[in-house]
Write a structure and sequence with these properties.
alpha+beta
Length: 144
């Protein structure tokens, strides 16, 4: 009888610990289909890397949102990586895109997006952006 009680107590403790771990974990956004990181930026004494997050929603007509992030890498902050700047490249664009292609240059990263228009399946679309170290975005080629 005592052994059964100990097993129940141990099992209850394991379940409680599992619940705490699950509640502490950040939920994952299921709409995110791609996260790409590349390059290095420096500006005003800060530095880090570029990250591009592509998320897609919808059922019949997929729409895509693409966000560029300047992730600051810090060895002294409580969190080693902090998003210093965020810029939307696309918002609810009616196309399904592949993972972004990132080309690294010494002072910037070029982001190329290729996909298919969701309302015209034979319609292909390409967009090109450049992410600069100071947190700005340059449109090299509008989506067409």
């Amino acid at each position: 009888m005592k052994a059964r009680h100990l097993v129940r107590v141990a099992f209850t403790l394991v379940l409680a610990q599992s619940a705490l771990v699950v509640s502490a974990a950040s939920p994952v956004d299921p709409s995110i289909s791609s996260i790409s990181t590349a390059g290095h930026w420096e500006h005003s004494g800060r530095s880090g890397t570029f990250r591009v997050v592509l998320s897609q929603d919808g059922f019949e007509h997929i729409n895509t949102t693409v966000v560029a992030e300047w992730v600051e890498v810090s060895s002294t902050a409580p969190q080693p990586n902090i998003v210093a700047t965020t810029r939307e490249l696309l918002r609810n664009y009616l196309a399904a895109f592949e993972a972004p292609e990132l080309k690294v240059y010494p002072d910037r990263v070029q982001v190329t997006l290729k996909g298919v228009l969701t309302q015209i399946p034979e319609g292909k679309v390409t967009c090109v952006f450049e992410l600069l170290g100071d947190g700005t975005v340059r449109v090299v080629r509008k989506c067409s």
